[in-house]
Structure formats: C-alpha cells, structure tokens
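Recall that a protein's primary structure is simply its ordered list of amino acids. Everything else, from secondary elements to tertiary packing, is in principle encoded there. The following example makes that idea concrete.
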Amino acid sequence: MRTSTNYRGKLVFTSKQCFSLLTLKKRERFSILFSRFNKVELNLNYTMVDSPETLRQLLDCLELYDMAALDTEADSMYHYKTRLCLIQITVGDSNWLLDPLSDLDISEIFKTKAMQILLLHGADYDLRLLFQKYGFVPRLVFDTMMAAKLLGKEHLGLSSLVEEYFGITLKKDNQKADWTIRPLPEDMKDYAVHDTIYLHELAAKLGEELIACGRMLWHAEICLQLVEHAKKIPLPKEEPWKITGSKHLPPRSLNLLRALFNWREQEAEKLDKPPYKILPPDLMLAIVRAASSTFPELDLSRLPRLPRRLSGEILDSFEHTLQEAMKVPVEEWPKKDPRPEPPSVVPDADLLLALKCWRDKKAEQLNIDAAMLGNRTQLITLSLPVENDWSKRYNEAGLMAWQQTIWNEILKENIGDSTL
C-alpha cells in the first residue's frame, strides 16, 4: 500500500513491513505498520455534508487516503425504531459529518478507498448499524477499545483514553442527546467530531504498545471477527413478549402479558417512542401479577402506580386492553414453555472449576480481563467430556487462534500437556 506523509496521525500502512495473520476460515494476509511521524496540530474544523457539492468533496477526499477514522450516532432513546442519525469521518487532516437522515444518497462513500480500512472505538455497534442500513462492512478495522482491553487498561471509554494519552478532557454533555434533531445544534456537531479526530493518534499509540508486548496479532484477529460478526443479523424472536422475568408466570398471566406487550408496541409505534418509555418491562410484569390476582375481574385499584404519561385516551386504551385480555378463553392462553431437556452431555464440574481457576491465574499474569481468554459459555464447552483432542474442543468453543495458543500454555503449565 502507498505510504503517505499527508496522514494526520501516526497510523500508516505499508507493504514492506507487516504483521501477517492466518485466519481460522481463510488464509488471508494483511499488513499493518505503525510508523512514527511528527505529531501535527489537530484540526477541529469540520464540513457538514448536506449538499451534492460537499458530498462530492468528501468522495474525492476519501479516494486520496488508505484509511479513515469513523464513528456513528444513533437514536434508540427517543424514537420507536433505532435510526442511524450521523456518521463522523476523519480522513487526512479533515473532518466530515454526514447526515443519513437527509435526502442525500451517501452510499457511494462506502466504495471509496479510505472506507475499506477503518479506525473505530467500540466497533461492534457501528459496524452492525452500517451493515444493516447499507450492507457495508470494511475490509479491515482497528478497534481502539479492543486494543485498550488487550493492554489491560482499567478505563476503556474514548474520553478516558484521550485524557490518558493526550491530557484532553472530552465533553460528555450530548451522550444521551436526541440525534434526530434537525438542524443539529452546533454543540452537538462539536461533540460528534471529537469522537474521531483523536483516533489516528490514539490507534498509533495503542498499536505501538500492542507491538511492544507481542499482542498485535491478537488484536488483528479480534478485529477480523468483529467484521464477520457485523454481517450476522439476529433473527427476530418468535414470541418477543416473553420478556425477562416472565419464565415462571402461569398461563393466565402470560395471556395478560402478551396482550399488554402488543398494546405497548402499538402505542410506541403510534407515538414514535421507545417501548420502554411507554411501560418499562418491570412495570409490565408488576401490572400482570396484580391483574392476575383479581382474575377474572380487573380491579384497577390493585394495579401499581402508572406513569403520568398514561392518561386520557392512552389510559382508556390500556384499561380496555386488560379488560379484553381477561375475556380470552382458557384454550387460547399461551402455554408455559416446557422444561428443557437435560443436556445429553454434562460438563465435568471439577474440570470446569479447574479451567476457570487456571484461566483467572493466567489472565492475572497477562494483566487482561479473564473473559478475554474465554467466557463462561466457552469454559463449559471446554469442560464437556466428549473429546480428548483439545484442538477440537477449542473449535467447538469458538476460540480464536491467539486464545488457543494461550490455552495450550495453560494446559502445559497445569497438566503437563495440551492433550488429556
């Protein structure tokens, strides 16, 4: 790849010096080099992409560079459906704000050269948003939050890392703002652009530390996995009304919960509000339990205190929903989920405990979060008495190559070999 001294920041890709990674699925090679350049003054100005002219300027700019820093702002707190509201891009020494809610077709930006290699902080959510809306995933990413985790940083937020490395305190005033507001206030634009202007320098510094402690390939594999996971859209639940806490409710209560859940969804969509702002889940469960206690009559005085926003026509509709649910014939009530069958293979309890202890000890030695070496589900899979070949257990548990290497070390240290 072309090396350019025009980059603002230290992160530069070359073809001469590289770190290669053999992935679990394909034999792919890519190179990442963190080279030292003199730090330049950061440009805090930005261009709001709100016209065909500014969009063309951005497209031209994105073709000049090999990578871009990116962040997104989405709304899940003020409206019924989560919407991608803003895309922030820093490339070279310029900053850009794109409005996905505008009439502009910005899909062409995802075909440009710089957008194929992205620097992000907490990439998972941003990548999933971009894939769901535009079907786009970059070829490579560098996630500064994952880098910080692998380096054992205590505080992983972007503001904490910027303060640690640059001595700059970022404002947090607009973290929970309504990003669908148009036109966007100046203070929200200023807040947004600060999410990308430090990423080149931050990635360079974190990258140097990863190289120094031999963990760059760990990070590269994690980032490849993030890109792959972004393409997996979860299937909708068949019975979404079965919320957390409803598992042990009797059919009579499940019938009321189903009706109340569906009513909440309809009201939330009609009012364009997040469902939890109509009725939070814990309140729904409390209402269902109280209403069930007086079945088949509905005693409104027994219900828990309702939010003040439930008044007038909405309150009438709420009460009508419960009244109608009380009339549903027993044979139409939802059935309780059957007790799950016991697993055909049960984890070895002693081995599971040993694996957890060994993992925690190794994580302490490496100064990283123990879950980075394997979460509880993965430990359970590793402890299943099905195969003596640990490489097969690793693959069943979905362990990455770098994790498998460490587990081989763990087994060798504790049982003398990497096979049972």
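The beta strands are 11-12, 33-34, 47-49, 68-75, 83-91, 94-98, 117-120, 140-143. Residues 241 and 261 are 6 Å apart (CA to CA).
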